[in-house]
Predict the structure.
Amino acid sequence: MTLRQKTLLLLAITLTGLLGALSVTTSSALLDSFGAIEAQSIRRDVERAQDALAYELADLNKVATDWSIWDDTYSFIRTRSDRYIQLNLKNSTLANLKLNFMLFLDSRGQVVFSKAFGLEQREDFINQEFQQSLAAANIHLQNPEQQLSGIMLLPDGPALVAAQPILTSEGNGPSRGTLILGRNLDPQKIQQLAQLTHLSLNLRRIVDANLPFDFQTAQATLFEQTEIPVQVLAQDSVAGYALLRDIYGKPALLLRVESPRDIYQQGATSLRYFFLALLLTGFGLGSVALLLLDQLVLARLAQLNTGISRVRMSGDLNLRIRIPGRDELARLAHTINGMLEGLACAEQDLRDSEREYRCLVESLKEVIFQTDTTGLWRFLNPSWEAMTGFSVQESLGRPILNFIHPDDRQHHLEEFLALIKRRKESTCYEVRYVTKEGVQRWLEIQTYSRLDFANNLIGTSGTLNDITERKQVEAERLRAEVAELARCSLEQEITERKRIEHLLFAANQVKSQFLATMSHELRTPMNAVLGFAQLLLRNQLSPYQIDMVGRIFRNGKQLLSLIEEILDFSKLEAGSLELELQEFDLEQLVLATCEEMRVSAQQKSLYLQVYFKLDNAKIVNDYARLRQVLINLLANAIKFTEVGGVELEVCEPTPERVTLTVRDTGIGIASADLESIFDEFHRVNQVWTHLSDGTGLGLAIVKHLVQKMQGTVTVESELAQGSIFQVEIPRRVSVRSYLLA
């Protein structure tokens, strides 16, 4: 993908993300606002509907007042005159007053006269059941100041009812009874209220078994809160709900006011237009930004890339890149030109250095060589021909093994494979070789691993020295020493041995102190050597110099590790090493140590597996020393294993003790060496000693440390069957027992 494509994709993603985020936030905020306005509007509509019902009740109360506070009505309750009925209680009277029923009760609550009238049908529809239901309401007012109005649930449906005491025209008592007037809340009345308020109204009884779902939801909400609930019925309609109580204050009806969602839909339409305008604006701004970016940056970057490609294709470091302007790209071109100039100078210096190096190598008496990973000669200086009689031309491309004495070839192969398999970084050994004339001579080979810049092994390099004369001198000196010893008398030999034993005993007393002191004194200059080697590696060096300084650093680290082992052993033998007891998680220690050793195992294609069988991972011990024990055992297992891998099992045979078992599939240990495996400076399987440059103190230190921890270490092994080292320690090292140890 080109930079222009990446820029276009980045702009598209950025604009899309910004537009998307803005769309989501704006849509959520605006639609929520429109929804709130819509809810506020529908609540006002519900309040209007409630006001319309309240107005109807007020009008009904006014009519009831006109009829109940009237001398004729007051007299009618006592006389029950038919003339009053004929003159005043005609159907036309109820129709004009928009009443559906009238009921006159005496002071005892008995019905004096009742009349019901259907306004639409213009006929009397009163019946006995209706009268009984209305009378059963027990609306009986004796107090002249008492009034009652509201909703009543009658057999034929809900009705607006007003009841007032019957008094004289002056409003005096005592009350002779109660006048009850009513208007049915039937569909026709609801329709009239809807036309009056310009609203869509619907009434439902609370006890209705077929109550719609939205009424049921609103009913539950109305019982829990005082705010008018609002529900969206469909994409284009919304409704508000109110609870209407009866004349006794009990919940009776549910009122629904339905309204079209004009506000919300208009808001959604406006929002869509806003998003479209925003999209077009973003597209325009993005196009302008991309055009400017292409003209000011991308085109000039392409010009810069073309100039660099021209230099790369021609290989001419004297070519220069020209980018006009004073911005960062122009300064980058200037910097690249300076780099090209520096590379040209460095290339010339490298040619001069290579010429000087070749002159130096060819003038040395030592043979300097290089081989590939198969052991074939790849470079030899002229000293090779003077040493062996073979010319450099006829030797290059041939195996080094062809020039070594047959009896020493196996030894050479072992050392060479140790380098190739990267078990060693360097080695020095002596073998015999055969000259072109067939003469056997001794050769000292000092060789190192040769790595490329990616740290991949590409072969070996080193020096060859003819040590035949030195071998002859050593042989003569050995024969002279043997002859001199033979001439010594037996008495002198006994005396000398006693003296030596005395000296050895005395030396053993100060050995530990001497080793500790010398190890400390050796660490100080060695740390300085390693520090200066690291400083050199940070400077600009040639590959050859980096290789040489790297060897100094690696060999220095190896020597420092040996010094640390000697120092630890001297402290253990002198009894000056103390454990620093602390509580820690054994499982975490084991996992961290195995992760540290896993790189060494992977370099040899070995597996390293850990198994835990612990109910409690907490122990009290010396964290660093227990880690040192594990590292020694795992390092030995990896070092002497060529195929397969290493396993570490941690378990607790008893709640108070834990065991750490290291198993490997390596070369194993002969039964004759098992008893002395933990002795100081003891090394078994001498055929495999080339695998390590160690001191033979590792297992001795392990044994001393484990004993210091009040534990035991054991080994089980057979040749070619692998080895099992098991360390058993207490879960909590006792301070008292530790001091006694």
